[in-house]
Design a protein that fits this description.
By secondary structure, the protein is mainly α. It contains six helices and no strands. The relative contact order is 0.14.
């Protein structure tokens, strides 16, 4: 029960932060604490079933973060409006697939292949991990543009919240991918 409450609280704080960025100083911290509880519980369940998978997922997540930061900082990947729109479109596509999958599961319908550990499921997970990784570029760009435009202080908290949100998503997707590979 506490896990469901923490999850609902984290989702609530996430939406509140997204729609009221000025509150990010408070809501972002509350989100991080609640999401930490949820991610800790999920990680514990995965580690009980697949010994050592959590360490691997954390290591890969850190590696992806460092690589994407390096690519962004070096200018190897520049966030243009076209790239930004592509990443946002791909992210919305993934969100739609997951939303349809959740709704269908409520009616006992299992979406074939994408959640399985077969080739299609693994490729789907690789694509979602890549999309999550590219979302890091949007976070880095938001931070850099905010500094350049001398954005208000609350935007520091909002950008940090966005980065945490992306890292949590990336970690969970990597965890799912590693599970499928096992």
């Amino acid at each position: 029960a506490w896990l469901i409450l923490a999850l609902l609280g984290a989702v609530g704080m996430a939406f509140l932060t997204i729609f009221k960025p000025k509150l990010a100083r408070v809501t972002g911290v509350i989100y991080a604490v609640l999401e930490g509880l949820v991610i800790g519980a999920i990680s514990s369940l995965y580690d009980a079933q697949y010994n050592g998978i959590v360490f691997s997922a954390v290591a890969v997540t850190i590696g992806v973060f460092v690589v994407m930061l390096g690519l962004y900082a070096s200018g190897a990947i520049k966030v243009t409006n076209r790239l930004r729109m592509g990443i946002i479109g791909a992210t919305l596509g993934v969100a739609l697939v997951y939303l349809v999958s959740i709704v269908l599961s409520l009616f006992g319908v299992h979406v074939p292949m994408i959640h399985d550990s077969g080739p299609v499921g693994i490729i789907f997970s690789l694509v979602v991990v890549a999309i999550a990784a590219f979302n890091l570029l949007l976070d880095f760009d938001l931070i850099e543009r905010g500094v350049a435009m001398r954005a208000p202080r609350y935007m520091e908290w909002y950008a940090a919240f966005g980065l945490i949100l992306t890292l949590v998503w990336l970690y969970l997707e990597i965890l799912r991918l590693l599970t499928k590979l096992q």
